[in-house]
Amino acid sequence: MEMTMEKGERVSTATKSTRKPNIPLNLRFIQWMFPKLESIAPQVAHKWFVDLFFSPPRYPIPGHERGILKKAKQFDINIGDRVVMGYSWGEGPVILLVHGWAGRASQFKSFVEYFSALGYTTVSFDAPAHGLSKGKETTIIDFKNAILTLEKMVGKVDVVIGHSLGGAAGLYALSEGLNVNTLITIATPSIGDEIISEFAARLGASQRAQDFLKQAIYQRLNRTFDEFMASYFITRIPDHIDMLILHDEHDREASLINAERLVEAYPQARYQKTAGLGHVRILRDPSILETCKNFVEDRRKIIHE
């Protein structure tokens, strides 16, 4: 598999994955139930739709990920009145790994092992309602607050690597003063309507449910959903950030246009496409690890020259 660092160039020819996600039983029930409820009691269904949007499904942690959690130094991160689980591995310059919606820190197992062996400290956390952290609901605001709090706890963070919503959360934190010069986003969504329509498609929800959700987001958070997008935050970060945008052509959760929107808004970023890695398997691909390592170390060399 050949990879280059040219902007916009296709860099991976992995076989397209046909593996279907393991959907928890309760989520299958929701998918079966929601269209029926909306047809007979739309007001009840639409309120439920909003609650579900703010409540990430919590997937079981696979056995191969549990081992990396046992090797971590675990600690609490206090964000307001909430406590989330934090993790640290290795010694050296700090790389912060931020998972996405319905994800968890242990999904970065390959990153942790790879960068720890290279002499880095990797730190991460399970956002509220994710992984081993408690809670049922959360928003990107909690992700952002966890990042800023973690920065105060560990001191200097050298690099942020964010997957999916974690990339948007990294941009959000940068827009609010996170002192980091290097950011890598992986499979990060940036188009609000696409996120909502994809969520609705999973539940078989109508356009009316989507419109109700947009209104509820504004009422709850005092901002439109688009103002919580990566495409919004990227226009509000310093113009000197070294950024690498990674995205797969076969990502079924966030289409390639999401990355292209980010590149349009921040043209100085490096942009790299892959093929056949999808939305999650991209976190385990050896060539992705190498690309991230090369980008991080090239930036460190420039800084220290």
Tell me about this structure.
With 305 residues, the protein is of the alpha/beta class. The protein folds into two domains: 1-19 and 64-191 and 229-305, Rossmann fold (3-Layer(aba) Sandwich); 23-58 and 192-223, no CATH class. Helix content is 43%, strand content 16%. The protein has eleven helices and eight strands. It has helices at residues 25-40, 42-53, 63-70, 109-117, 140-154, 165-175, 192-203, 207-221, 230-233, 256-265, 286-304; strands spanning 73-79, 82-89, 94-98, 121-126, 159-163, 182-186, 242-248, 270-274. It has an eight-stranded mixed sheet with strand order 1-2-4-3-5-6-7-8, sandwiched between helices. Helix 2 (42-53) packs across helix 8 (207-221). It is globular and about 60 Å long. It starts with 24 loop residues before the first helix and ends with a helix.
- Order of strands, widest sheet: 1-2-4-3-5-6-7-8
Structural class designation: alpha/beta
Tell me what portion of residues adopts beta-strand conformation: 15-25%
The CATH topology of the largest domain comes to Rossmann fold
Percentage of residues assigned to helices: 40-55%
Strand/helix succession: HHHEEEHEHEHEHHHEHEH
Rounded mean pLDDT score = 91
CATH class category of the largest domain: Alpha Beta
